[in-house]
Amino acid sequence: MLEVCVESVAGIGAAVAGGADRIELCAALAVGGLTPPLSLIRQAASAPIATHLLARPRDGNFRYGAGDAALVAQDITTAAEAGLAGVVIGASDASGRLDADMLAGWVAHARAAGQARGRPLSLTLHRAFDLCPDLFEALETAVHLGFDRILTSGGQPRAADALDTLAALVARADGRIIILPGSGIDTSNVAAILRTGAQEVHASCRSPLGEASEAEQRFGFQNGAALQTDPAKVSALKAMVRRA
Predict the structure, then answer these.
(1) Is the full-model pTM beyond 0.90?
(2) Is the terminal CB of the chain with fewer CB neighbours within 10 Å at N or C?
């Protein structure tokens, strides 16, 4: 399965056209993704493939106070009410480990929201996981909390630099939870990623849209070339995943 993260209406269309199996819907991919606007969520709900909503209220770390935690809970409700297939969430405590209490509250909220609409929300733990001091301890926490999958680059900035760790995580998961490698995955390394035993991969499949104008950069509206989901890259990556 190929999941493509997108941040725009054009990105949704490109992911679908390229043959993606699932969308992770975000905003601000330049900072790892944030919760997208309601208007984009409603647009994604009509896509012909499953869409999972990233619920991340701000950039920076994943240590959240009560206010941020309430925003994530509301985002989970929004995903359910819009008819999306799942949510992508994560939180850390002061030690860098998963904040199990906060996550347990969100998981319970997601289950209730899914029951209210008659279909459960799929639950992905995002890359707050990669900042944990012990990834295998964090995996067991995620299993205990009831997550369906973990989006991870194996504790490195790029998944291709953590192949041994990813393989070990897949082995430790042992079918109890899905390991979803992501970060820097493309046609040059997806075969190696899949040899870890992973059955799902996550990628952005973006290409430069064109250089920002001098005025756009001077006013701070754009920092360098804009990137946009490329249907040709989605299609090429999907073909390699299918062959594997």
Answers:
(1) yes
(2) C
